[in-house]
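Chain A, query sequence.
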Amino acid sequence: MSELARLIIAKYLAAALKRLRRISPPGLRRWLDAKRHNLVLNFLQHTLQPVISSHLAGVTPSSDTKPEPRCKTTWSYWHHGETEAPAIVRACFNSMRRNIRGSRLVVLSAINAHEYVELDQAIVKKHTAGLISDTHFSDALRIRLLRDHGGHWLDATVLVPNAQVIEPHGSKFISPRLGAPVTTEYVSMQRWAIYDLYTPAHNALFSFLNEAVEHYWQKHDNLVDYHLTDYMLELAYRNNIGNAQAQVNNAPISDCSPSTLLHEFYKPSSITDLKKRLTTITARQKLTWKIERTRLPQTHQSMPNHITRLFSVRSSLDNG
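Chain A, predicted structure.
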């Protein structure tokens, strides 16, 4: 069977299982999730076999015995540049500058990304041709960037609500990790979040992820699943590539969900209440720039408006 045929079968069967999950009772969803995840993982295990084999055989260099100093850079990305970003995104950038202590923020764009990292030409060309979305281009960018330079990656829609210092705490890999109960809908199962990653440079796990991303896009023009990078990390975890199991399992457990504010995003609130709320939230918060105006309260007492004001951005939502 050709690689294209394998991809098409895996992609559409996985999509069918996802649709079936939406209409299934809770007791059946865990089984459907496992089937869907294994379907995608089995495809990736096959298509990435050369990369997996080289890392398992120790052909690629490992950094496990060579500790790297902490990189004091926070990286983020907006394709058209910070000045062209929506107000909520600019507020998130401002929150990073204000509240991540001991770290400088570098906002990458299509204009300046090449100054920091050289991506595989297959990825660059397919992104330019529209075969790779801005979202998945930024996935490839973060993996290569963190492999080469290390540091802390935050998506452009991550709000840092209060002062924080990102410290390794003995773990090479840090990402939001929640305890029980575990949801099985996503393959990460709350053990990491691709939008919030810390690693020192030359981490063997990120060397594998970088090679996996490059190999995938050299062979394919289509995504097998939207959460491709999460599945690659799960593949590394299952094969324990780059000591992935210890790195993931030793990352600190968060005492607060990174989705707390997103669940309240469209509820009416006062700016005073939000200020108090932010003082109680310890985790970095994943928001969205795709604001559904029809869901906002009729008054301006909405969280998106308050966030842009609190973090010194005038929102276009203020104009109605």
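The longest strand covers residues 73-77. The chain has a mean pLDDT of 90.
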